[in-house]
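tokens incoming
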């Protein structure tokens, strides 16, 4: 099983793709129940949605599914959203709070650590290396972390999720100018809704790497899947018409981020 897919570019922009993978090793798959094997919480087709939008950017993607281990969670297991429903480093429920393992088959601490070493650590080693590589070229790097999620998940949030959910950990992970560029495009995208640091403020990846004082800026983009899928239920098909319309706005965002230079 290939652990990490990397496409190198020489612009300052690095795209992280932590949740698009659907590979589950046989030993992990055998432990899951039917809910887990359905993989409903995949960021469906996100790598296809972002493919080829702008030239010369770097992509870092894990093909391993988030039910094996969530590479966007704190490797210590600490919650990113204390007091709110969420899923763990090695999830034991789906986004609806439904168990993904039969009772007694959940990974124990030893198994969680094995998965962290096997899958979580290599992804972040690759991502860190690419950020440092482009930072060495330009003196800075921008991490844009690509995500999507169903727009209706009562277990995680009330109501309907906005279309563009931008997370910067309340402004801590990147310079305000990059936020302003991104929000300006999203807020003016006709027919779409947008929010900054709402329910999703940026996962561990954004918070860990986003160190503006050290020249690495990070933004998480969580898209509502209704913006590019034919349906948010199986088979989660990619809708070319919806996706192409959205891709125009995503292109504007990535071009604007790629063109930015520190003053």
């Amino acid at each position: 099983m290939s652990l990490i897919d990397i496409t190198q570019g020489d612009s300052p922009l690095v795209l992280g793709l932590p949740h698009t993978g659907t590979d589950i090793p046989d030993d992990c798959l055998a432990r899951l129940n039917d809910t887990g094997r359905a993989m409903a919480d995949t960021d469906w087709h996100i790598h296809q949605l972002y493919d080829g939008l702008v030239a010369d950017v770097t992509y870092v993607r894990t093909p391993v599914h988030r039910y094996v281990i969530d590479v966007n969670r704190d490797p210590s297991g600490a919650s990113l959203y204390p007091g709110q429903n969420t899923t763990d480093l090695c999830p034991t429920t789906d986004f609806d709070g439904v168990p993904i393992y039969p009772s007694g088959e959940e990974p124990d601490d030893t198994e969680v650590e094995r998965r962290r070493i096997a899958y979580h650590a290599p992804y972040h080693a690759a991502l860190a290396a690419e950020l440092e590589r482009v930072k060495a070229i330009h003196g800075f790097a921008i991490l844009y972390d690509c995500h999507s999620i169903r727009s209706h998940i009562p277990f995680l949030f009330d109501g309907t999720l906005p279309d563009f959910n931008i997370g910067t950990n309340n402004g801590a992970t990147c310079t305000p100018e990059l936020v302003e560029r991104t929000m300006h495009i999203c807020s003016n995208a006709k027919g779409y809704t947008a929010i900054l640091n709402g329910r999703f403020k940026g996962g561990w990846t954004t918070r860990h790497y986003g160190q503006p004082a050290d020249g690495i800026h990070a933004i998480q983009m969580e898209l509502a899947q209704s913006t590019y899928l034919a349906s948010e239920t199986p088979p989660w098909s990619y809708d070319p018409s919806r996706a192409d319309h959205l891709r125009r706005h995503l292109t504007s965002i990535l071009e604007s981020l790629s063109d930015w230079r520190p003053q």
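note: The CA atoms of residues 172 and 210 lie 7 Å apart.
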